[in-house]
Predict the 3D structure of the following.
Amino acid sequence: MYKVTLIRGDGIGPEIVAAALEVVEATGVKIAWEETLAGEEAVEKFGTPLPEEAVASLRKNKVGLKGPLTTQVGSGYRSLNVAMRQKLDLYANLRLAKSYPRVNSPYEDIDLVVVRENTEGLYSGVEHMVGLDAAESIKIVTRRASERIVRFAFEYTRRNSRRKVTAVHKANILKFSDGLFLEAARAVAEQYPDIEYEEKIVDNMAMQLVQKPHLYDVMVMPNLYGDILSDLCAGLVGGLGMTPSGNIGDEVSLFEPVHGSAPKYKGLDRANPVAMILTAALMLRHLGEEKAAQRIERAVTEVLREGKAVTPDLNGTAGTAAMGLAIAEKVTAL
């Protein structure tokens, strides 16, 4: 039996997590969930959005499943997701964008992977005011972090029998910071002669993904670019409700959907649970439960293809719980 930390999250988090747990249970994989708090509920109970018991639970269990947490814009506490990634050294953010049937999208057969450096860059949190009318943020790029994220991308490519790694950068302008990232990427790429390697400037990469996304496979990049381009990739496959992700470290891994907590939909039973369910599948694959992960992905595909028990954003009338139940029933039948 696996022991996994569970954080239900804010907003729609508890609803979509409940759907994902039902689907995981249907696989038959035995998991003992150790539930802990983070986010708004943790502030109410502990006076902090990230209590030490949540961090301790993740360090102990090594694997966690988390719903979305609310991040206040322009004020309040820093992003909890960023804080958890840095505190636990979850240096690789893996975000998947894959086409599914009957999902509104201008493209078909998209299968893209964004590997995002998770601990530094402009998300390092080193910023301050310069007087009253200027603010300064420091972008930190190190050779160590650059090399390990690029190596993660190549290892993922090899392990999953994928074909190409594209390093994304802005080294034509940011010659020191992104220049160092690119230098590190080239050094690592030389160690993987069996895998195709190329480089793209980030603005050109954005255009390329819109014009001809099928040319790309696994993309690796610094923190901010990964945050932006992974949302672009989500748009190619129907939106953030379809995109799972995982935060991988050498010791701890934490799995969460890409999308936010959508507080205006809290308690309405309208949220699309697919990203959360696919995130749970990604977690199972990380645990070595490949067949269970494949059953979940096939079940999601079948429910979407039928188009009956799907949420309003997928042109259906089902609620979050009903869609989760439909996917769980498909998993049981497979």
